[in-house]
Amino acid sequence: MPTDRRLTFTLDVEDHRPGPDVAARYPDQVDDILDRLAELGVRGTFFVVGNLAETDPDLIRRIADAGHEVGLHDWDHTQLDGHDADSLRKSATRGRELLGELTGGDIAGYRAATFSLTADTVWATDVLAEVGFTYSSSVLPAANPLYGYPGAPSHAFCWPSGLLELPAPLADLRATRVPLGGTYLRLVPAGLLERRLLSTDVGFVYCHPYDFDTEEPFWWEPVAGAMAPLLWVGRAGLWRKLTRLLADAAPPLAERVASLGPEVPVFEPAAAGTQLDMVHELPRARCVDRAAYLVELARDRRVIHIGFVDEGYRSMQDRSGAWLHEHLAAGARALVGLDLDVEGVAAARVAGYDAHVVDCRDEAAVAAAGVEPADLVIAGEVIEHLDAPGPFLDGLHHLLAPGGRLVITTPNAAGLFNTVAALMNREVNHPDHVVGFTWRTLTRLLADHDFEVEESATFVPAVKEGGALATGARGVTAIERLAARAGRPFLADGMIVVCRSVRLS
After folding, report:
1. SS3 of 225, please?
2. Residue 293, Cβ neighbours under 10 Å: how many?
């Protein structure tokens, strides 16, 4: 396909404000953008969040009347990994029909919120084709702090469903590749973007109304997290930059799609077969206080705590007041401890705890002990000790009452602590650990044994010992906490996964 270095102006029309008590600013910004584009003689594509069209239909009519294409930017700006097939179908259908009514034309294009079409959400392309979209502009074909799809083509391509994809154009800055939009567009000089723009057949810039809003008061935007201040940088100079980049602007995306012809290649992700297939996105997660998080999950629930004794490290837990079972007992409606440590269970029973020496995988033995299924089953730092973690997970389904949840906590094999230790040719691990998990390997194992993950979190383990090594360890854990605040929670050395049994559904 021929290369066309011209750029189409695209705008993601979304509501950017800290809450409903603050007046919406996007309508005024969109009207100003329409005036500026008219002065430049530029027609572009406006991807509109559907519920905004429902709130302000006249704004959509003004966009269409000015000669711009209107596409859908989801109904309520939900990222694709926040949808399933049914919810996306409803969202896309509702938005497409409403925009079609308001503009009097066919709505051909869809752009996923935050370019969230990735290797994990490719299923969405079948739904979008089914709903009737001709093309999508939802892939960022590079690594990105939020959503990216390394390995996806950088030229226009078709999904197996027949849906055409127009990936975000990239500028190669040598150290990294960045898309022509949003914060990157505001921060990187126009000349550098022009010189480093990778060849593409359908190039475009993408912006948001807030990118032009020089008078918006600062607030901490939750998706951006610690990087939120960057959302306010470079707004004053954006029109000057766009005037240069759009000097020979291309028409709206739908018109360019019509001229591509039949030779657009088909991209089949499953057949890609490159090492990039091993790159997986991590979910959004909070870095929490492990004990407080688990206690809150257990509050007023019937709880089974597996491996509760913490054999070998119980005395250290007692000295630091960190024995988890004791904390759980303060909030749970009922708490049962299961462990194979005979002496530990005996000591717990003497202390007044409901505890049993029983293999939790043995359904008959659990029933003989009088242990009933629970609302919450906690396996805290157990799975990494097991030679066969898969059969262990299979044996937990019978412990869950209908609607119950399983919580797994385990060290994070990708945590910062061992990365730092490796620099000194060391490894930090419990003497009895035989398996190490990352988030991906743990959740894949859970899925293989009929558990569906509902929430993920991380935690920074406390350093309970003293001495020079402990001082260094506390420095590493402080960095982990700072990284979590900056949106990198999986540098923490502990993981928590909450899931439900789909075998019992």
Report:
1. helix
2. 18
In three-state secondary structure terms, 88 is helix
pLDDT band at 465 (very low <50, low <70, confident <90, very high): low
Question: What number of other Cβ atoms are within 10 A of residue 2's Cβ?
Answer: 7
User: Can you tell me the mean pLDDT for 368-387?
Assistant: 94
Out of 119-128, 368-377, 466-475, 486-495, least confident range: 466-475
Spatial neighbors of 470 by CB under 8 A, at least 6 apart, are: 463
Is the Cβ–Cβ distance between 363 and 394 less than 8 Å?
no
The answer to whether residue 424 scores a pLDDT higher than 90 is no
Contact 166, 257 (CB under 8 A): yes
Report how far residue 452's alpha carbon sits from residue 463's, in angstroms, rounded to the nearest whole number.
Answer: 32
Structure tokens at 422: 């490796």
Bridge-based pairing state of the strands 451-459 and 157-158 = unpaired
Rounded Cα distance between 116 and 124, Å, is 10
pLDDT digits (tens, 9 = 90+) for 102-115: 999 999 999 999 99
Amino acid making up residue 95: G
- Tell me the β-bridge partners of 332: 299
- Please check whether residue 49 is in contact with residue 85, taking contact to mean a CB–CB distance below 8 angstroms: no
Q: CA 150, 165, 111: angle at the middle one, nearest 5?
A: 90
**The tokens of 369 are what?**
């002990």
Using an 8 Å Cβ cutoff, are 110 and 136 in contact? Answer: yes
Q: Which of 45-59, 165-179, 287-301 has the lowest mean pLDDT?
A: 165-179
Q: How far is CA 187 from the centre of its chain?
A: 24
State both tokens at 239. 């029109």
Residue 388 tokens, joined: 């066969």
User: Among 208, 209, 202, which Cα is nearest to 169's?
Assistant: 202
**Range with top average pLDDT, 82-96, 224-238, 471-485:** 82-96
Per the document, the length of the chain is 505
Alpha helices in 132-230 (DSSP H): 182-187, 190-196
What is the residue-wise DSSP string for 299-366? BTSEEEEETTT-TTTHHHHHHHT--HHHHHHTTBSEEEEEES-HHHHHHHHHTT-EEEE--TT-HHHH
Question: CB–CB of 466/456 below 8 Å?
Answer: no
Instruction: Classify the C-alpha dihedral 108-123-442-359 as positive or negative.
Output: positive
pTM of the shown model: 0.58
Q: Which amino acid is at 191?
A: G
CA–CA distance, 360 with 356 (Å, rounded to integer): 10
pLDDT band for position 322 (cuts 50, 70, 90): low
Query: CA–CA separation, 385 vs 219, rounded Å?
Result: 45
Whole-angstrom distance, CA of residue 32 vs CA of residue 102: 21
Quick check: 490 and 282 in contact, CB under 8 A?
yes
